[in-house]
Specification:
- There is one protein chain.
- By secondary structure, the protein is mostly beta strands.
- The protein has a single domain, classed as Beta Barrel (Porin), CATH 2.40.160.
- It is built from one helix and nine strands, in the order αβββββββββ.
- Strands 1-2-3-5-6-7-8-9 form an eight-stranded antiparallel beta barrel.
- β5 and β6 form a beta hairpin.
- The chain starts with a helix and ends in an 11-residue tail after the last strand.
């Protein structure tokens, strides 16, 4: 019994010495590193940023019978894909895990590539068109029976302006979200004639296979809508980056196509109708006003 009492007393003394030794070590400055507190991400606030990505558009252009060119014509479809740059600004607020906001944006294609080229004639020749009072000099019009044989047509996307809503689910420093709203886009149409000889208007720069001259153009801005989704993550206090996909659908709209021949500039040739859809994939970087400061370490 006495032996057990001595063993128990020795154990208590040993534990006390160990704890006391540890306290002394801490007092001597050999304490463990301080633990930093990571503040949860707060997605509320006003933000703005830039982005870059790739777009692919399907653009239909058709002749519309009118006083300018009353006959029924043909149309064509052109696919245009190209890199673009963008800018955006928005405001959002977080309620629990839900993040709701509104965002406006603008994107513009690099414009170093045209859409694919399509033959847009119906077998008519330049000599078969008329009357001269409507088309001075016998200039062929684009997608109609007035079109010159062998004409090449193309169309392309210029830019898109948007404003819409975002709804996200905050998961720490990550946030998947969906988005959708109003869009307005600018599209171009071009018609070029083959340069068989320098007598063709605009062919002073060269003739032969593949040589064409700018003949006719049209511009239109189309209203529409978009829907998409993406995800963002916090890379440092106030800074986020992410990836987003959008699909756009645009209404049809009629506009006037004008001659761009060097000898007969700015003559109204016909009415044309634009219809288009676009898809985009974009990488984004954003900065938020009122960002929290880095969390201080615990004392």
């Amino acid at each position: 019994m006495l032996k057990l009492s001595k063993i128990a007393a020795g154990s208590v003394i040993a534990v006390t010495a160990a704890v006391g030794g540890g306290s002394v070590a801490l007092a001597d400055g050999s304490s463990p590193a301080k633990v930093a507190y990571e503040r949860p991400a707060d997605w509320s606030g006003v933000y703005f940023g830039i982005g870059s990505g790739y777009q692919w558009s399907s653009i239909d252009v058709a002749h519309v019978p009118s006083v300018i060119s009353p006959t029924t014509g043909i149309g064509f479809s052109s696919d245009h894909d190209e890199w673009f740059g963008s800018a955006h600004i928005g405001v959002q607020h977080q309620w629990g895990p839900w993040v709701l906001g509104i965002e406006g944006g603008w994107m513009s294609t690099i414009r170093d590539r045209e859409g694919d080229h399509n033959l847009c004639n119906n077998g008519q020749t330049a000599g078969s068109i008329g009357p001269p009072g409507v088309l001075p000099g016998g200039v062929p019009a684009l997608a109609s029976p007035l079109t010159g044989a062998g004409n090449f047509c193309t169309s392309s996307l210029n830019d898109i302006v948007t404003i819409g809503l975002r709804a996200g689910w905050a998961a720490g420093h990550w946030m998947p979200y969906i988005t959708g709203g109003y869009a307005n886009a600018g599209f171009d149409f071009e018609n070029r004639v083959p340069c068989a000889s320098t007598a063709v208007p605009g062919c002073t720069g060269g003739v032969g296979f593949g040589a064409t001259a700018f003949h006719e153009e049209a511009h239109a801005r189309l209203n529409g809508w978009y829907i998409g989704g993406g995800f963002e993550w916090v890379i440092s206090p106030g800074w986020t980056t992410g990836i987003e996909y959008r699909h756009y659908e645009f209404e049809s709209r009629d506009t006037t196509a004008f001659s761009r021949d060097l000898t007969i500039p700015s003559v109204a040739l016909e009415r044309v109708r634009f219809e288009a859809s676009t898809d985009t994939v974009e990488a984004r970087v954003s900065w938020r006003w009122g960002r929290p400061e880095a969390a201080a370490p615990l004392k």
